[in-house]
Amino acid sequence: EFPGTVHAGEALQCLAALAADRGDFASAVELYGDFIRLGPDPGRTAQARFLMGGCYFRMGDFDRAVDSYVRVLHETPGTPGLRDLARTWIGWSYVRLRSHRLARKVFEELGATAEGAGLRAWSLARAGDAALEIRDFEGARTLYAGARTMAESSGVRGAVEAASLAGEGWTRYLEGEYGTAADLFSQAKPGLDVQAQAEMDLRIGDCRYNLKDFAAAEAFFRLADAPGAAPAIRDEAAYRRGWCAYRQGHAAQARDVWAALARSEGPLASEARYWTAWAFFREGRFAEASAAFSAVAREAPGTELAEEASLRAADALFNGGRSGE
Questions:
Q1: 67-101 burial, b for 16+ CB within 10 Å, e for fewer?
Q2: Which of 138, 272, 274, 307 has the smallest count of CB within 10 Å of its CB?
Q3: For the whole model, what pTM was predicted?
């Protein structure tokens, strides 16, 4: 509708930005395409292409996002800042596509060639994450160590150092080195935000649980199950606290924890109800165990959990009969 002028280009850019702001990314893509077809200078074309890539990314069309960002690289030979941003989002698009080998390659290249030391350090940490996803633990540790060294030498430690320590902790955890993993997670905590700190407490608790130090594990799960933490983390922490009590022979305490979690009706509610029934069984309260198992079976008919609960309900009735309950 607009004549091919500078003013038309500005209008199209404004309309595209407004569409993106209200979440209409499909319309924004069309408008950015119209702007590009007007044939502005290469710098403005590249900027529009970059913003188009962001719209595709937010639409979940990561293949088209990669295509847009790659075209930015061809159109901006003299704009390293925009090129680095485009390469960063190519990496993130590959992560969302679960193409972790490609993501690693992109982030490693950024770690070697990006204009700023902070971005280079951050990119090496992200390359470490990609290596972790493909279970190249030694490669991941090398990349995380490189990220920390670069962050320290360039004065941008903080979040990059913390993320690298946490990532290296995961490599040790997945290799069964729980003590080393717990130490690394502990070192990472001070540089993280409240939510990430709660997740580290959860992971340290997992390490202590796997080392059969149930009392220490329970203490960390209590830290993770604190006000301010994300509900999903709090639910996981409560569920694990129940297990710590159960493994220490405190069936009643475990039951109370799981019963409270079951009442929350969160993602772990069914599992919590199942283990509440087990706690009744462990206490020798067979009638209550049978009733609780039967309730779980009725709740999700046809599932593996329901089938197991039905068998346990019958088992509890049999034991109750034998004990004269």
A1: bbbbbbbebbeebeebbbbbbbbbbbbbbeeebbe
A2: 138
A3: 0.83
